[in-house]
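User: Could you go from structure to sequence for me? I need the amino acid at each position, not a summary. Structure tokens:
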């Protein structure tokens, strides 16, 4: 009986394709909207997580805090290499620690030049940032100790100065200093803040001090990057680090910290949680169109019951029960809504893929979401098809046969 009901439902759809399609349209739009929203939300979450992870794992980054002046905000004093060494000796669970100095410079190679950021680094920098070389070699101990004029380029700087040529061994001008290119960093892409991480040049810390910063000051470290061992509680480590720095910098109780600590793991959790809530919110808004689609199915089914009154009367007169008539119309509603759900899922797949491609975000499409959307569309058919089915099954056979 159920099989026959399905066959009759498909026969009704076949009789009037256009009406069936228009009936499904609300479900198609509703299911498609929900899946596209969820796919883009998941893709955005994955993109942001990847960007934060590209900074390094279990990473704490210490910056000078800002102070407010009448002319606006300015940075409080930088750190000294000695302060970085004290953190290294006192903070538990450190895997690697890298003090960093950076500034904006113009790099030149013959007729090509580019504005970029140059970073003075120590040996642990590559370990902290999980950054490897695409070509060439790293600095050796002599480079760090003597401040040799050597440098390693980010991928964007390499393209700006050399395009597709091999830069290894070339002499480039950074500010007023000539440096030999000994390596190129592997491409990392955009960072968590949307910045180009590959737009950089790295030098040994002492080289940076001798030729780039040129400042006679101890406070020449403007960032300290700390990679913690796996399993270390970053929240506890942040508290310990705060205590160490307040003690080293002689900050009295009640005074504001002269530094800020960024915990990449906490930021990753916060961003992931926010985007998930936003995705759920947008999915719920899109889900409203499913309700509208269900109302459309109910309206068309009510019209169909009116048009087929004599057919229903004939079936009841030759022995069909009320339950069989109710089941017949209910299955017709479920078939229409389910077909709409399937079409919506297929369209959503390609739309989400296209938007992800154009917006350069990862394409994330979960089968479980598609299955849930399909089942929900079938449920919409049951919910909104019940009233027309109930009306059809409740018709009086004699009055139905007299209906014109």
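Assistant: Here is the amino acid at each position, in order:
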């Amino acid at each position: 009986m159920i099989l026959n009901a399905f066959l009759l439902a498909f026969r009704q759809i076949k009789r009037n394709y256009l009406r069936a399609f228009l009936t499904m349209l609300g479900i198609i739009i509703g299911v498609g909207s929900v899946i596209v929203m969820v796919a883009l939300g998941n893709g955005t979450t994955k993109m942001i997580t990847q960007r934060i992870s590209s900074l390094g794992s279990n990473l704490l980054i210490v910056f000078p805090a800002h102070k407010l002046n009448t002319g606006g905000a300015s940075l409080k004093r930088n750190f000294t290499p000695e302060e970085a060494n004290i953190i290294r000796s006192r903070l538990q669970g450190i895997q690697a620690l890298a003090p960093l100095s950076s500034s904006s410079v113009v790099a030149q190679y013959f007729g090509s030049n580019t504005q970029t950021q140059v970073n003075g680094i120590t040996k642990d920098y590559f370990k902290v940032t999980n950054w490897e070389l695409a070509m060439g070699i790293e600095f050796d101990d002599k480079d760090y100790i003597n401040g040799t004029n050597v440098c390693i380029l980010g991928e964007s700087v390499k393209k700006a100065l050399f395009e597709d040529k091999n830069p290894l061994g070339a002499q480039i001008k950074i500010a007023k200093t000539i440096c030999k290119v000994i390596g190129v960093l592997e491409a990392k892409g955009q960072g968590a803040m949307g910045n180009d991480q590959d737009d950089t040049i790295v030098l040994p810390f002492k080289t940076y001090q001798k030729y780039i910063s040129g400042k006679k000051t101890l406070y020449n470290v403007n960032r300290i990057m700390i990679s913690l061992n796996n399993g270390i509680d970053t929240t506890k480590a942040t508290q310990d680090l705060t205590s160490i720095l307040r003690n080293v910098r002689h900050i009295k109780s009640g005074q504001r910290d002269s530094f800020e600590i960024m915990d990449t793991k906490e930021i990753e959790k916060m961003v992931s949680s926010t985007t998930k809530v936003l995705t759920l919110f947008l999915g719920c808004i899109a889900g409203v169109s499913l309700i509208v689609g269900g109302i459309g199915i109910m309206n068309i089914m009510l019209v169909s019951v009116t048009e087929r009154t004599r057919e229903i009367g004939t079936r009841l007169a030759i022995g069909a029960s009320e339950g069989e008539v109710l089941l017949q119309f209910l299955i017709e509603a479920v078939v229409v809504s389910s077909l709409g759900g399937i079409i919506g899922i297929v369209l959503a797949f390609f739309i989400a893929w296209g938007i992800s491609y154009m917006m350069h975000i990862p394409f994330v499409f979960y089968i479980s979401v598609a299955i849930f959307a399909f089942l929900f569309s079938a449920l919409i058919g049951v919910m909104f098809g019940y009233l027309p089915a109930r009306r059809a099954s409740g018709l009086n056979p004699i009055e139905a046969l007299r209906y014109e």
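One structural detail worth keeping in mind: The chain is about 55% helix and 20% strand.
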